[in-house]
Amino acid sequence: MASIGILFFILTVIIISSGNAGFINVKCKPESKGQFGQQSLLECVILTGKEVTEAKVRVVIWKKGDKTVLLLHNGKTMPEPGYSFAEPSWNESNMNVSLLITNTAVDHEGDYKCEVITDSGDDSSETTLRVTAKYSIPTIQSTPVKMTLNTDSVLTCESGGGYPKGQLRWFDVDNKEWTVSSKMEANLTENGLFHLSSKLSLLRGSIFSKYTCVVFNASGGKEFEATYELPSDPEKLDRFPTASKIVAPLVVIGSLITGLLMALLLYRRRSQRGHQEVCTHELDVEEGSDQETKYQDRLA
Q1: Which residues 6+ apart lie within 8 Å of 133 measured at CB?
Q2: Is the dihedral of CA 63, 68, 74, 79 positive or negative?
Q3: Residue 94 to residues 44, 127, 162, 215, 291: CA-CA distances in angstroms?
Q4: Rounded CA gap, 14 and 20, in Å?
Q5: What pTM, to 2 d.p., does this model score?
Q6: CB of 21 closer than 8 Å to CB of 70
Q7: I need a labelling partner for 116 at 20 to 30 A (CA). Which of 73, 132, 140, 170 fits?
């Protein structure tokens, strides 16, 4: 019965004020953005014409679709839970009829209509609320856990708590994108937010040392990223030795060869010197023998 009385009152006021409909004008901000879990404001004000000196607000109705979320009637405000006037001390002379949502959820997103009836006329205006929620920092896991450059592997990137539906994209160490090689799933949670999961399959022999997973929101803006770096692969390093590993043995071998050559040269020099000394000694012996023979011949 109470609802029938309120409806009858509203219709009566509309009929009485229809002749002055052009004296007031309700203006709402066309679109507002609300952050999940925070307060959201739908701005609407009543503008009066020059003919109106002091308007009195009789009825304010805020609707989301067909559902009334706030009703002002006979100076009494009757809001649904989570809704209120933006100004707590609102009164019938206040031309600010903005709507405040105290704890924004995904369900609050949509089109709203503000209807106002005053003693100088009536009007209405519409506005839209867009809800957004930031995604969490991504996490990356590998399968197998001990991933190497020489095994087929899968990297799984996950990020949640975001709205609207976003995207996970993959980049390698050279910032080349590999998203086309991945498969992403987006699942709605109980609170209406999205949980994103993306799997990137990697084939042995074509794996980079580092991959980055970046989460983008529905507007294409970058929010957070995570990086996965592969551990060093000894087998891979052995197949592709570095320059230092090649040069070091060569230096050692070169030093050994140089030492051997110097030792051989020294040995040859010593051998030649010894041979010369022997030849000189033999010559001296022969000369001595000849002199002794000549001396004996003289004595004879």
Answers
A1: 35, 36, 37, 106, 161, 162, 163, 193
A2: negative
A3: 12, 20, 37, 45, 150
A4: 10
A5: 0.68
A6: no
A7: 132
From first CA to last CA, the distance across the chain in angstroms is 177
Could you give the CA distance from residue 112 to residue 114 in angstroms, rounded to a whole number? 7
Q: Which candidate, 86, 93, 88, places its Cα nearest to that of 58? A: 93
Q: Could you tell me the CA-to-CA distances from 276 to 273, 279, 282 in Å, in that order?
A: 5, 5, 10
Rounded Cα gap, residues 14 and 122, in angstroms: 7
Distance of CA 55 to the CA centre of its chain: 52
User: Which helix (H) or strand (E) element contains residue 229?
Assistant: strand 222-229
Phi, psi of 197 (to 5 degrees): -140, 130
Q: pLDDT tens digits, the chain, 300 residues: what are they?
A: 444 444 444 444 444 444 445 688 999 999 999 999 999 999 999 998 888 778 899 999 999 999 999 999 888 999 999 999 998 888 888 899 999 999 999 999 999 999 999 998 999 999 999 999 999 999 999 999 888 878 899 999 999 999 999 999 999 999 999 999 999 999 999 999 999 999 999 998 888 999 999 999 999 999 999 999 987 654 443 433 444 344 445 555 666 677 677 766 766 666 666 555 545 555 454 555 555 555 455 555
Q: Which amino acid is at 216?
A: F
